[in-house]
Protein 1
Amino acid sequence: MSSKGAVGGRIPVAVLGTGSIGTRHLELLRKIEGVEPVAVPMRRDRRRYWERSGYRVASGWEQMVGDGPLLGVVATDTARHAEDACQALNLGFNLLVEKPLAVNIGEAARIKACAARAGRRVFVGCVLRFSDSLNVFRQQLPRIGRVHTVHIECQSYLPDWRPDRAYKDAYSAREGEGGVLRDLIHEIDYAGWLFGWPEAIQARIRNTGRLGISADEIAWLSWEASSGTLVSISLDYLTRPSRRGVRASGEKGTLEWDGIGLSVALKRPGKRDELATSQQTKEALYTAQLQSFIQACVEDAPSRLATLQEGYRAVSISDAARRASDSRRETKVDYRVEDHS
């Protein structure tokens, strides 16, 4: 990995926000050869913790300027993404912004405008693009011929996510920045990545009151891709045991991805079923994304990372789903930045 311009031969990567996901990024960056992770805590009282843990600590983005390639990870609360990303972009950073890109399309448009003015690159942390098993699924899709229907699901029980923390206090529970549509936007991202982005969408979004939170607990979305494939997505915070996967039905058979068991099953009439499995760890998954981000920015290497445009598209779909649910009608997805800038 090239480190031209980096201090001490290592490429500094600043991580703004040191909550659970920011901590994960910092710990994994520390294990990547040639990289120096820099913790940028939002709270002053956290700086001493990271210093004692042996990390370089900065008080803000501006402290990194003039210190080699400007690479940053935005891992703050979703409601802050636009503000934090634009500050970094204006200073010359290339960014990996944790998913979702922003809370709504207006905020996503702000980031897009800042990136364009600064001439910087922004990627979105839709990490499932680096899942070995999901990529096997992607590679195997042609074997089932033309796909007519796809069902995607990600269903789990929110209180089980972080047993050591009151789930009602987490960002996931807050209406303005959490909820299944934003939290589980991975599924919207890879649906578009694998099968094509929709022009219009149908949706139903509900808060049942069972969890005592203000954010949406259930979302169902459906659309017709440009290929004619009918795509449906089921998301919720209420299901036990957890489920995550994709089932694609084509003219020659069925292909299924199990995102929890990390397996891909191919079933075709008259032929023996095929099963592929992966041993990829969560650490390896996130490390692959971070390495790809660094290589894309420093070496201009090709990448599976979700681009700024794709992150914008996913937020556009999420916003359109809310409008469709409110109106109970199929709703056009508006991808035009100028309408929201």
Protein 2
Amino acid sequence: VFQSYALYPQMTVAQNMGFSLSLERRSKDEIAQKVKEAADALKLGPFLDRKPGQLSGGQRQRVAIGRAIVRNPQVFLLDEPLSNLDAALRSETRVEISELHQRMNTTMVYVTHDQVEAMTMADRIAVLNDGNVEQVGSPMDLYNHPETEFVAGFIGSPKMNFIKGRYAEAVGAKTLGVRPEHFAIGQGDDAWEGRVTLVERLGHDTILHVNVPDAGALTVSLDGQQAHQVGDIVHLRPQLEFIHRFDEVGRPIAA
């Protein structure tokens, strides 16, 4: 399944989905049956007589997936299939692909630069960096136990804070990694004082951007609706059981 859909504009949805079967000289009845089954699974039944130009981006992507389904493959390869969709359609189509995967019980190799897609859809993730496999594991393995600084920064949203200097040196590291959700707000000997520079209110949580001397610009994710304002002085307390320590080459330091 290609990023650009790769549908034939002069063909209908049904013709696009059944094209590979016609090349194999399957009977018209067999092609029609397989196209109908795929269309029903993808909720494309009402659109079979339309041309790709008459469809939304999400519908075109479903047609591209349906074209693969009709061949009953043992493995699907999906190359950035949601990258051309807007945020709302991307979320909707992500759920549809996950449900399809469960129904078909077929292996899917899914290429994406979007870590949210990787975390929510995958059973196992392989993180590539400059052509090298950095780590392979379940989504939560990569989140909780990143084997490189690159993986730690890729997995998680908002991304992990990386801190050098005295705060890292205090825990015996070249770089200290703290996820935004692993800060608490409160006074204490271990608290870091900083000034709020931006507040993002998402309803279900609040994202603070905080400038901390000797640590730089940090992102903090707090549950629920918070009253913090730009300019406020806050005290951040990293939850020590969740911090990550990295050496000079970006490898984790054992506790």
Protein 3
Amino acid sequence: MPKRSTLRLTKRSVDALRPGGKDAIFWDRDLAGFGVRVHATGRKLCIVQSRGPAGLKRATLGPVGDRTVEEYRREAAASIDRIKRGEDPRPPEPAPEPTVADLAALCLKDHVAARCKPATAENYRKSIDGHILPALGSKALKDVAPEDAANLHHALRATPAAANQAIWVLSKMFSLAESWEMVPPGRNPCRHVRHYRATPRERFLTPDEFQRIGDALKTFETKRSMQPSAIAAIRLLMLTGCRSDEILTLQWDDIDRAARVIRLRDSKTGPRMVPLTGPVGKVLDGIEREDGVPWVLRGAQPNSRLSCLSWHWRRVRTATGLHDVRLHDCRHSYASRALALGEGLPVIGRLLGHARVGTTAKYAHLVRDAEKAAAARTGGSIAAWIMPGDAEAA
């Protein structure tokens, strides 16, 4: 057992303690249960001891010198109170400070996965994984300052759109953190970051380019060198102006032949209807339907749907030499063609699904004749280029 002595523990008295042949404990005269253990090696540790409901408990507070004697005395007094209440003498470990990486994971799980469409979710992941986490992932939320956001934005200045997107996502993350009480109000570091002026990318297909894509699809079809569902998907995108996800998630139950509409149940702007024109019907007629599979555009695996067109579209671009044309440009080109045919902006907006759910709800059972006619003229015009000989009147 170590030797026991008592004295008033101060910095001077503790510094003066010398090791003997054995360990020794020196107890404080002012606070019963607070002491210093001096090992035979010369090491000195502040300790605390008291009796509680479970009996005598002793704990080490820390090495002398790490904190002042007075700081250890205050900690000892708190530890004695905990022991007498039957609790652990050591203070509870503080919860680790949440980091930007923690917030990102929570954002993706509780916000993006629950509320965002696949394309939006992909944009979140690109910004988070590609830019935000490499720059700020290990930083505690409380330590992220406005200059961190400004530096991130500046580092991406060569790609203004990506820079703006990263700041938008980071700002959204901190807005969520405030609502989740992970940071106090007013802690968003992106508030004063001025977005770069990004030039909108506009690329519209010409009649010749429509024809080149149509010829390439026909060649792939004849040679059976591309998945039939991918060929059909690209044709439907060009003939309807729909978004990729709207076409890829299409089910046979969405096709209403009697009303001549396609009912999109989960469009970006909510449920909406797309006119089923003659050329669109021709493409759908050419798709082999498989019993028990709800998807119009089947995937390579049993009971699956086609989930991505990127690889197929790259092959189309290579075959046509249109290396700067994105798949989404087919949607822009549909709108451009409709404008060229004299359709009004409100009609085009509805054809593209730009209206809100409340605006499209009035057409629950019937699409306006103007929209049907506009879709027929636009789709028929494009079909004459990409499906020569197969295009039918709506």
